[in-house]
Amino acid sequence: MADLDNYESEIERLKSLISGEGTSSVTSFSPEPKKSQEPPTPSKASVSTHATDTSQSKQSEGSNAEQAEGKKIPNVTTGPVGLDIGTSHVVSAFKKGESLKTFKQLNAFFTIPASNFTKDILAQNNIMFFEFDKKFYISGYAADGFANMFNTNTRRSIDKGILSPRESEGIQVIKAVVSSIVSKPTKFGETICFSVPGQPVDSNISIVYHESVIKRFLSTLGYVPISINEGLAVVMSELKNENYTGIGISFGGGMCNVCLAYYSVPVITFSIQKGGDYIDAMAGASIGESATKMKGIKEAGLDFTSKDVSDRAIIALQIFYDDLIITLLKAMRDVFSSSERIPKLERPIPIILSGGTSLPNGFRDRFQKAMKSVKLPLEISYINVAEEPLTSIAKGAYLMAQTESV
Ligand SMILES: Nc1ncnc2c1ncn2[C@@H]1O[C@H](COP(=O)(O)OP(=O)(O)OP(=O)(O)O)[C@@H](O)[C@H]1O
Ligand SMILES: [Mg+2]
Q1: Ligand 1 atom nearest to 250, measured from its CA
Q2: pTM for this one?
Q3: Which of 81, 206, 324, 400 has the most CB atoms around it within 10 Å of its CB?
């Protein structure tokens, strides 16, 4: 406990560096209230099957995934498919010839008024969209380009890891986004394994609706869909040498997912509905900057090994990174300690960190340092970051799909 106090006082010390503004505005941040709404099935929705323009996007670090834009995915997909449906990105993994390929698409959209002229222009430029209720829903990376032009933000079909109750057309957007990186299977009834979050411990929202709606949609493509817990997918892709025994953690955009697996069996799974978006929003609110700006600074190369702590934005990002890590570790300690299912392990087990939020240089050490403060009721052998944090979940899902389709 004394260690935890030390660690938290370190966070307080960093907070004080943000000249008095930090703590008060942090507490004033509150997420938008949620309305419950059933997504209608649009009668005349049409999805352009064209992949979108590459010029708006750049390859992210930590991923060899091909962006969907400009890259033609095969018209039909041969063999099983792994699919990671996340708050920020959707990633697919399937075999093309002998090698396993991954494709990535932004899970975002932007609406513009529908007109025949614009429709032709969008189609000519391979911009992915569908039409509903006199509006065009520009989906995927192209939505970013439009949002930038209008100096605003894209909208999300998934909020904090789960189908957004605020966006009634959310499932239509997911359909468009998924269809840009997954084709129909050559063999009807091929297996597709998609990631689902664990039950959040910090909210009472259920994942059941989210999972069933996605399952139904994937069935209509001609697949047999099965789901995999997101943390288990991390274990599947990274812990072959440990007999799939250990803890997989995905630090995503909307949430963090944890799975303790024993010989590939998920023993304990859960999530918290905080992730990279939380860091951006809270750090931005603390220094009077937009979350979008903070996200840009963060992704441009936040480096925990840097000794330079003069930049307020960097300090604010570090504070809320620490806040997220500590929140997650406390949740792990509490869930593991109160679980009757915790296995009596014969030896220490590893932890694998994955997801886009685990990308900054020095993240592993930051996590390890925080672990000295929050004692887990398990012996840990080592902590590693996944080889490719942005694609490891889709790859783990692929492995599961491959096994199940035999
Ligand atoms: N280089 C980077 N440094 C820090 N953060 C990054 C970097 N690249 C991406 N991110 C962050 O990673 C997050 C997205 O990660 P990821 O694609 O794993 O999430 P997701 O699977 O879509 O979301 P979730 O699993 O929460 O539903 C975003 O918050 C993004 O800002
Ligand atoms: Mg994810």
Answers
A1: 25
A2: 0.85
A3: 81
